[in-house]
Amino acid sequence: MHMDPFAHYAYREAYLEDEDFKEVYQQLQNQSHVHDGDNIVDYHVQDYLLYRMDKVCVHKGERL
């Protein structure tokens, strides 16, 4: 899948406002892993897109 850079930036803004993803996305701006207690949660950011277990996270405004 190819998305233009503007779409990536729009997703970045949406993640920062989304109740499901904003905390995780903010944490990943400063570190490479997100922790839930003693466990590492499998999220990462690539090209401004948030992934969990290698699947892109879709913010509420884009969900069906």
Based on Cα principal axes, name the global outline: globular
Which bin fits the share of residues in helices?
A: 25-40%
State the major sheet: 3 strands, antiparallel
Structural class, please? alpha+beta
Number of strands: 5
Q: What is the CA-atom radius of gyration, in angstroms? A: 12 Å
Number of domains: 1
Number of helical regions = 2
Q: Averaged pLDDT, please?
A: 80
List keywords for this structure.
64 residues, alpha+beta, 3-stranded antiparallel sheet, two-stranded antiparallel sheet, 25% strand
Notes on the protein architecture:
With 64 residues, the chain is of the alpha+beta class. It has one domain. The protein has helices at residues 5-17, 22-30, and strands at 34-36, 39-41, 43-46, 49-52, 55-56. A three-stranded antiparallel beta sheet has the order 3-4-5. Helix 1 crosses helix 2. The radius of gyration is 12 Å and the shape is globular. The model has no long low-confidence stretch (mean pLDDT 80).
Draw up the topology in text:
Layout: H1 5-17, H2 22-30, E1 34-36, E2 39-41, E3 43-46, E4 49-52, E5 55-56
Antiparallel strand pairs: 1-2, 3-4, 4-5
Quick structural gist:
This protein has 64 residues and is of the alpha+beta class. It has helices at residues 5-17, 22-30; strands at residues 34-36, 39-41, 43-46, 49-52, 55-56. The longest helix has 13 residues, at 5-17.
